[in-house]
Amino acid sequence: MEISPEVGGTTYWVRTPDDFDVANLSVEAERHGILIEPVSRYYAIKENAENCFRMGVTSLVVDKIRPGVERLVKLIRELVKGQVEHLTTSSGNWLTGDALADAMSGATLLYREVNGWPCTIVYHPDGSMTGQRGFANEDYDSGRWRVDGDRFYRRWDRWVYGEDKVYFIVIDGDKVKFFNDDRQIVDSAFIRLAGRAATPKAN
Question: Is the per-residue pLDDT at 6 higher than 60?
Protein backbone atom coordinates (compact mmCIF):
# COMPACT_ATOMS: atom_id res chain seq x y z
CA MET A 1 0.00 0.00 0.00
CA GLU A 2 1.03 3.62 -0.52
CA ILE A 3 0.05 6.79 1.32
CA SER A 4 -0.22 10.15 -0.42
CA PRO A 5 2.87 12.19 0.53
CA GLU A 6 1.16 15.39 1.66
CA VAL A 7 2.99 17.03 4.55
CA GLY A 8 1.10 18.63 7.42
CA GLY A 9 -2.34 17.33 6.47
CA THR A 10 -4.79 15.50 8.69
CA THR A 11 -6.39 13.33 6.00
CA TYR A 12 -4.44 10.66 4.13
CA TRP A 13 -5.28 8.93 0.87
CA VAL A 14 -4.15 5.31 1.11
CA ARG A 15 -3.66 3.62 -2.25
CA THR A 16 -4.21 -0.14 -2.38
CA PRO A 17 -3.55 -2.84 -5.01
CA ASP A 18 -6.10 -2.99 -7.81
CA ASP A 19 -7.51 -6.32 -6.60
CA PHE A 20 -8.08 -5.13 -3.02
CA ASP A 21 -11.75 -4.70 -2.03
CA VAL A 22 -11.83 -1.23 -0.46
CA ALA A 23 -15.62 -1.27 -0.06
CA ASN A 24 -15.46 -4.47 1.98
CA LEU A 25 -12.63 -3.05 4.07
CA SER A 26 -14.75 0.01 4.82
CA VAL A 27 -17.62 -2.19 6.07
CA GLU A 28 -15.36 -4.44 8.15
CA ALA A 29 -13.46 -1.47 9.57
CA GLU A 30 -16.71 0.16 10.72
CA ARG A 31 -17.63 -3.06 12.52
CA HIS A 32 -14.35 -2.69 14.41
CA GLY A 33 -15.04 0.94 15.28
CA ILE A 34 -12.79 2.40 12.57
CA LEU A 35 -14.15 4.83 10.00
CA ILE A 36 -12.50 5.10 6.59
CA GLU A 37 -13.94 6.46 3.36
CA PRO A 38 -13.72 4.99 -0.16
CA VAL A 39 -12.90 7.80 -2.59
CA SER A 40 -15.00 6.87 -5.62
CA ARG A 41 -17.56 9.59 -4.84
CA TYR A 42 -14.87 12.23 -5.42
CA TYR A 43 -14.64 11.25 -9.10
CA ALA A 44 -17.12 12.35 -11.78
CA ILE A 45 -16.70 8.93 -13.38
CA LYS A 46 -16.48 6.38 -10.58
CA GLU A 47 -14.82 3.82 -12.84
CA ASN A 48 -11.82 6.16 -13.08
CA ALA A 49 -11.36 6.31 -9.33
CA GLU A 50 -8.10 5.02 -7.92
CA ASN A 51 -8.47 2.01 -5.65
CA CYS A 52 -7.86 3.84 -2.39
CA PHE A 53 -9.51 5.18 0.73
CA ARG A 54 -9.31 8.32 2.87
CA MET A 55 -8.29 8.14 6.49
CA GLY A 56 -8.65 11.19 8.73
CA VAL A 57 -7.40 11.83 12.25
CA THR A 58 -8.89 15.24 13.12
CA SER A 59 -11.65 13.73 15.28
CA LEU A 60 -9.21 11.73 17.41
CA VAL A 61 -7.16 12.76 20.40
CA VAL A 62 -3.46 12.15 19.81
CA ASP A 63 -3.16 9.06 22.01
CA LYS A 64 -5.98 7.35 20.10
CA ILE A 65 -4.44 7.71 16.62
CA ARG A 66 -1.79 5.02 16.85
CA PRO A 67 -4.06 2.32 18.38
CA GLY A 68 -6.66 3.02 15.67
CA VAL A 69 -4.12 2.70 12.87
CA GLU A 70 -2.75 -0.49 14.42
CA ARG A 71 -6.26 -2.00 14.55
CA LEU A 72 -6.76 -1.08 10.90
CA VAL A 73 -3.44 -2.66 9.91
CA LYS A 74 -4.34 -5.84 11.82
CA LEU A 75 -7.70 -5.99 10.04
CA ILE A 76 -6.13 -5.49 6.60
CA ARG A 77 -3.60 -8.25 7.24
CA GLU A 78 -6.39 -10.57 8.32
CA LEU A 79 -8.38 -9.82 5.15
CA VAL A 80 -5.43 -10.44 2.81
CA LYS A 81 -3.71 -13.31 4.64
CA GLY A 82 -4.52 -15.73 1.83
CA GLN A 83 -3.23 -13.35 -0.85
CA VAL A 84 0.11 -12.07 0.44
CA GLU A 85 3.47 -13.79 0.40
CA HIS A 86 4.06 -16.19 3.30
CA LEU A 87 7.39 -17.15 4.85
CA THR A 88 6.94 -20.86 4.18
CA THR A 89 6.27 -20.34 0.46
CA SER A 90 8.50 -17.33 -0.21
CA SER A 91 11.11 -17.45 -2.95
CA GLY A 92 14.69 -16.89 -1.83
CA ASN A 93 16.62 -17.99 1.25
CA TRP A 94 15.14 -17.81 4.73
CA LEU A 95 18.20 -16.96 6.82
CA THR A 96 18.76 -17.73 10.50
CA GLY A 97 21.56 -17.64 13.05
CA ASP A 98 25.10 -16.98 11.83
CA ALA A 99 24.02 -16.91 8.18
CA LEU A 100 21.54 -14.13 8.95
CA ALA A 101 24.05 -12.16 11.02
CA ASP A 102 26.73 -12.48 8.33
CA ALA A 103 24.36 -11.34 5.59
CA MET A 104 23.05 -8.29 7.43
CA SER A 105 26.43 -7.16 8.82
CA GLY A 106 27.56 -4.23 6.67
CA ALA A 107 24.50 -4.41 4.42
CA THR A 108 22.86 -1.34 2.91
CA LEU A 109 19.09 -1.23 2.29
CA LEU A 110 17.40 1.05 -0.24
CA TYR A 111 13.64 1.48 -0.46
CA ARG A 112 10.71 3.88 -0.51
CA GLU A 113 8.50 4.30 2.51
CA VAL A 114 4.72 4.13 2.21
CA ASN A 115 4.56 7.93 1.90
CA GLY A 116 6.96 7.88 -1.06
CA TRP A 117 10.09 9.08 0.74
CA PRO A 118 13.36 7.37 -0.26
CA CYS A 119 15.18 5.76 2.64
CA THR A 120 18.68 4.30 3.06
CA ILE A 121 19.63 2.10 6.01
CA VAL A 122 23.08 0.73 6.84
CA TYR A 123 23.53 -2.15 9.30
CA HIS A 124 27.06 -1.68 10.59
CA PRO A 125 29.18 -4.70 11.66
CA ASP A 126 29.39 -3.42 15.26
CA GLY A 127 25.62 -3.77 15.71
CA SER A 128 24.80 -0.12 15.18
CA MET A 129 22.63 1.12 12.32
CA THR A 130 22.08 4.45 10.63
CA GLY A 131 19.26 5.66 8.44
CA GLN A 132 18.56 8.62 6.19
CA ARG A 133 15.22 9.41 4.58
CA GLY A 134 13.65 12.19 2.57
CA PHE A 135 14.39 13.57 -0.88
CA ALA A 136 17.36 15.51 0.53
CA ASN A 137 18.23 13.01 3.28
CA GLU A 138 16.76 15.56 5.67
CA ASP A 139 15.75 13.06 8.36
CA TYR A 140 18.39 10.97 10.12
CA ASP A 141 18.32 8.39 12.88
CA SER A 142 20.51 5.74 14.44
CA GLY A 143 19.88 2.60 16.42
CA ARG A 144 20.93 -0.98 17.08
CA TRP A 145 20.36 -4.30 15.34
CA ARG A 146 21.00 -7.90 16.37
CA VAL A 147 20.20 -11.49 15.54
CA ASP A 148 18.78 -13.94 18.06
CA GLY A 149 18.19 -17.44 16.71
CA ASP A 150 15.97 -17.18 13.65
CA ARG A 151 14.91 -13.57 14.28
CA PHE A 152 16.29 -10.20 13.25
CA TYR A 153 15.80 -7.36 15.77
CA ARG A 154 16.20 -3.64 15.27
CA ARG A 155 15.45 -0.59 17.38
CA TRP A 156 15.72 3.03 16.25
CA ASP A 157 16.39 5.88 18.66
CA ARG A 158 13.42 7.89 17.27
CA TRP A 159 11.87 6.20 14.26
CA VAL A 160 9.08 3.65 14.69
CA TYR A 161 8.45 4.98 18.22
CA GLY A 162 11.92 3.85 19.33
CA GLU A 163 10.57 0.34 19.89
CA ASP A 164 12.04 -3.09 19.22
CA LYS A 165 10.83 -4.64 15.98
CA VAL A 166 11.43 -8.28 15.16
CA TYR A 167 11.28 -10.07 11.82
CA PHE A 168 12.01 -13.25 9.95
CA ILE A 169 14.33 -12.44 7.03
CA VAL A 170 14.43 -13.82 3.49
CA ILE A 171 17.01 -12.67 0.95
CA ASP A 172 16.07 -13.25 -2.67
CA GLY A 173 18.78 -12.01 -5.03
CA ASP A 174 19.03 -8.25 -4.50
CA LYS A 175 15.87 -8.07 -2.38
CA VAL A 176 15.41 -8.51 1.36
CA LYS A 177 11.96 -9.42 2.66
CA PHE A 178 10.69 -8.83 6.20
CA PHE A 179 8.06 -11.19 7.69
CA ASN A 180 6.12 -10.65 10.92
CA ASP A 181 5.26 -13.12 13.69
CA ASP A 182 2.33 -14.37 11.60
CA ARG A 183 4.90 -15.06 8.86
CA GLN A 184 3.26 -12.61 6.49
CA ILE A 185 5.45 -10.30 4.43
CA VAL A 186 5.27 -6.77 5.81
CA ASP A 187 8.11 -4.98 4.01
CA SER A 188 10.84 -5.40 1.41
CA ALA A 189 13.81 -3.44 0.13
CA PHE A 190 16.76 -3.65 -2.22
CA ILE A 191 19.82 -4.89 -0.37
CA ARG A 192 23.49 -4.39 -1.12
CA LEU A 193 25.52 -6.87 0.88
CA ALA A 194 28.96 -6.05 2.24
CA GLY A 195 30.41 -8.77 -0.01
CA ARG A 196 28.50 -9.07 -3.27
CA ALA A 197 30.00 -12.47 -3.99
CA ALA A 198 28.32 -13.77 -0.84
CA THR A 199 24.78 -12.91 -1.99
CA PRO A 200 22.54 -15.80 -0.88
CA LYS A 201 20.89 -17.64 -3.72
CA ALA A 202 17.50 -19.28 -3.77
CA ASN A 203 17.50 -23.06 -3.47
Answer: no
